[in-house]
Amino acid sequence: MAKRKNNGGAVDGAGSVLSTVAGPAAPPHPTRLGPPNPIAGQLLEKVTGDETLAAEMPFNSTKPLEYGEAAYTPHKGETHTPPTPIATASTCTETVASEKVGDGQPDIGDNAINRPLDRVRVDDTGRELTTNQGVPVADNQNSLKAGLRGPTLMEDFILREKLTHFDHERIPERAVHARGSAAHGYFESYEDLRAITRAAPFAAAGKRTPVFVRFSTVAGERGSADTVRDVRGFAVKFYTDDGNWDLVGNNIPVFFIQDAMKFPDLVHAVKPEPHHAMPQASSAHDTFWDFASLSPEIAHMLMWQTSDRAIPRSYRMMQGFGVHTFRLVNDKGASLFCKFHWTPMAGTHSLVWDEAVRIAGADPDYHRRDLWEAIDSGQFPEWELGLQLFTEEQAAQFPFDILDPTKIVPEELVPVRPVGKMVLDRNPDNFFAETEQAAFCAAQVVPGIDFTNDPLLQGRLHSYIDTQITRLGGPNFHEIPINTPVAQIHNNQREGFHRQQINRGRVNYEPNSLAGGCPFQAGARGFVSVPEPSQGNEVRGKPELFADHYSQARLFWVSQSAVEQRHIIDAFRFELTRVQTPAVRSRVLALLLNIDERLAGAVADGLGMVLPPPLPLSSDNPPHDYQPSPALSLFARPGALGVRTRRVAWMVGQGAEGGQVRKLYAALLDAGAVPRLISARIGPLATSDDAPLDVEISFETGPSVLWDGVIVADSPVFVGDAQALEFLRLQYQHDKPILALGNGAELLKAAKIPRKPDPGVIVAESADAEAALASFKEMLARHRVYARERA
Ligand code: HDE
């Protein structure tokens, strides 16, 4: 409390203290404001406190630091501690307590809105139903009517509130990346990286930073299928001590275009065609390939997009990339260029195309379900964060421009340095409130991380906030609980739709003296941009090196295994067969010729077309000849998950060996796999012993494509079952491991599974079941038996 001189109960200027306008020329010093009351006492204290604060800043002492040389060193704002907390309050009544306004002891300098999400979790257990105003609802079955058969009354505010809320339940979906799924988790730094960056998550070995991660497809609408051929979004929101850092990346390290100016054209071309709104979630149509073949900078991206990277087995089994070159900056202001890589501990694994198409029908939520189930069963997905760090001098020697987002930095040129791991260990409570309302933004970085002049990134810095203003209904979307940082928010931004914060005090501007200068600018502790010199004539164009469109596309192609190359050829054939305009197809072939003749020839063959001349190059510079990069093959990262989370269908028929099934089932479960008994119908199934088996899922509900492998139990009577045969044929066709025990081999025969050496088709007598299961597990852990495809 401020000490005031006792001037004998003076009332001079008391009227001014009690008024909100005008006052005496000199500070008023009354010591009482009429009959004593506690609030008036605080009012006196506040007015005196205000005067003290204002007097402490006779002028703006930091103004000269905004100019010239001094401006290069950010300065801390001038600040003074209020002589009494009430000096900076909005009202002297802030100590009046109630159940609504709080305990009357405001937490000065603390914003409750940043507290953990528990502050907004709602639980209805044991509660009555109420309206949105908290009024208990007596009857939730009937609207209010004039008599049982009478008209509904306008007066029914309960019905009207319920319908009005329902009418407005939808918000616009994301313009791209509409379909997605997310989870909470943490990032843990392996080491203290402060020599390289002052970014808070890397400040100490073992330091954990909470994250929220959303995976997505790009082109499809919110209800589209998960397994379509597409790039996957990989957006990570780090809730750091210094505010939110969003690393909004993809599962493919390059992009379609080089300049933000082309993004709306790209997205218009790939989205459903505007006249009939088809096709959904697919690039296999004329407008996409028309645009693509007229934009040869897309060549490298097309190679990734037609590869199996675009049909991942699981969100848990794909890499993530920051795509652009960023900068990491330490506390001395020294910076390095940086590319971000997420590597899944589960390895990189994909579906095969026919499987992906069928899953889209069998379980459109395939990836969403997979992520949810893995986390809810305690099999937390993990990724390692790796950095490619390089200097300006190194970058100048590269045969490509590091500002070009259609280029990678090959790992052979700059190795990836592992610096931490990310673990997703908690599913959201509510999809809409968290996943749908999460607002990622490429411009959200924290001290220690900075942008480069990549012209695609520069455009993104604008676009994300802008899109949220429409999608989330105004400028206060950062106050939606999932988006609030764990760091405190203090600034002078105010008002706008759906404002949540109730800012204390009358000061909403800076500089100020009446709030002791608060919130004051952080100076060097705050975000400081790397002082990169920037000079040049204004121009709309790109650097010459950006014109090499094919060297890295070829690098990708030559780095793929034979199976991967064949899948790429098949994907081009599929996409272009769906295209209806031969001239567009021909232009794509002309583009492919600049990547590889065999690739172009094989695609042309599938289309029954002759090869046109290659597209003219965009530059006279000779292409760069890269050595193959083994790291670019999906097979370079088998992962360390073994059979954990792998789904195994266990086909059982009447009279199966119940005891053996139970024993092996338990063994597989103990290894972390997810086996389920499958048959024509669910429920009890008679076995060779007394205890019936309980079938868990039927062939209709769990078709072949939803399983990573199949075991056919030793059962006498399922031979000839059409569903079982179809199931097995598809398991084989999709390169999945098959184990048949005892009489189960008959089913393989009936399904015409080829009888030739195949490490993924294991046939064993019941007596050898345990050894056979071990071989099966080994094949299951390897994901697919791609060798089968060469046959
Ligand atoms: Fe995005 N992008 N993008 N993008 N992007 C959006 O923001 C945009 C780009 C990426 O899970 C939108 O909130 C422009 C590259 C992901 O919520 C939008 C340009 C990369 C997500 C937008 C790009 C991405 C988005 C749509 C070129 C990989 C989903 C809704 C200049 C590095 C985030 C939204 C989530 C979402 C604009 C290019 C990744 C419209 C203008 C390159 C993962 O603002």
Automatic annotation (TrEMBL):
Xref: CDD domains: GATase1_catalase
Record's keyword annotation contains Signal: no
Keywords, sorted A to Z: Heme, Hydrogen peroxide, Iron, Metal-binding, Oxidoreductase, Peroxidase
Active site, UniProt feature: H177, N250
Residue span, Catalase core domain: 130-518
Matches recorded under SUPFAM superfamilies: Class I glutamine amidotransferase-like, Heme-dependent catalase-like
Enzyme Commission designation: 1.11.1.6
Region (Disordered): 1-40
Pro residues bias (residue ranges): 25-38
Cofactor: heme
GO process terms (BP): hydrogen peroxide catabolic process; response to oxidative stress
Domain of life: Bacteria
GO CC annotation terms, alphabetical: cytosol
GO molecular function: catalase activity; heme binding; metal ion binding
Residues given in the record as heme binding sites: R174, R214, F263, R460, Y464, R471
Catalytic activity: 2 H2O2 = O2 + 2 H2O
The family this protein is said to belong to: Belongs to the catalase family. HPII subfamily.
Summary of the function given for this chain in its UniProt record: Decomposes hydrogen peroxide into water and oxygen; serves to protect cells from the toxic effects of hydrogen peroxide.
Name listed for the protein in its UniProt record: Catalase
Taxonomic lineage of the native organism: Bacteria, Pseudomonadati, Pseudomonadota, Betaproteobacteria, Burkholderiales
